[in-house]
Amino acid sequence: MGELVWVAAGGIAGAICRFLVGKFTARHYSAAFPVATLFINFSGSLLIGFFLVWTSERVLADPRWRLLIAVGFCGAYTTFSSYAFESLKLFEQGATRLAILNVAVNNLAALAAVVLGAVLARRIG
After folding, report:
1. What percent of the chain stands above pLDDT 90?
2. How far is residue 6's CA from residue 67's CA, in Å, rounded to a whole number?
3. Domain range for residue 30?
4. What is the mean pLDDT of residues 99-114?
5. What does DSSP assign to residue 33?
6. What does the alpha-carbon distance between residue 94 and residue 118 come to, in Å, rounded to a whole number?
7. Angle at alpha carbon of residue 70, lines to 66 and 75, rounded to 5°
8. Is 61 left (phi over 0), alpha (psi -120 to 50) or beta?
9. Confidence class of residue 85 from pLDDT cuts 50, 70 and 90?
10. How many domains in the chain?
11. Which contacts of 9-12 are long-range, i.e. CB under 8 A and separated by 24 or more positions?
């Protein structure tokens, strides 16, 4: 039961952050391209790449932190299901170039963010 509390706490925080970033982005960027989802996927991938490498290679962390951050927070914060749906909608609306751009940038940016997070974690300490 204790593990579920850690995952749930992280999930609550991740979902709230996802909501707030989405609202902020909607106020500052056009809805023509899903900037919020791109930013969330990038930053969540950066966080999980950094966190998992840092806590497995650089510091001795209580395993509950992995449940809180990697499983709970990042699981609720990142939005690949939204990304997939938004890509489909762009295709369906005839915005094929934007759809392809969305797929390419989300995948490449998320991969680059995981690598960057791992590199940053390995340079600390």
Report:
1. 88
2. 6
3. 2-123
4. 96
5. S
6. 37
7. 140
8. beta
9. confident
10. 1
11. 9/68, 9/72, 10/67, 10/68, 10/69, 10/71, 10/72, 10/73, 10/74, 10/75, 10/76, 11/72, 11/73, 11/75, 11/76, 12/72, 12/76
The two tokens of residue 75 are 């699981």
CA proximity to 13, closest of 92, 102, 76 = 76
Report d(CA 6, CA 24) in Å as an integer.
27
The mean pLDDT of the chain is 94
Determine the residue type at 55. T
Distance CA 50, CA 34 (A): 24
Residue pLDDT, tens place only, 15-61: 999 999 999 999 999 889 999 999 999 999 999 999 999 999 999 89
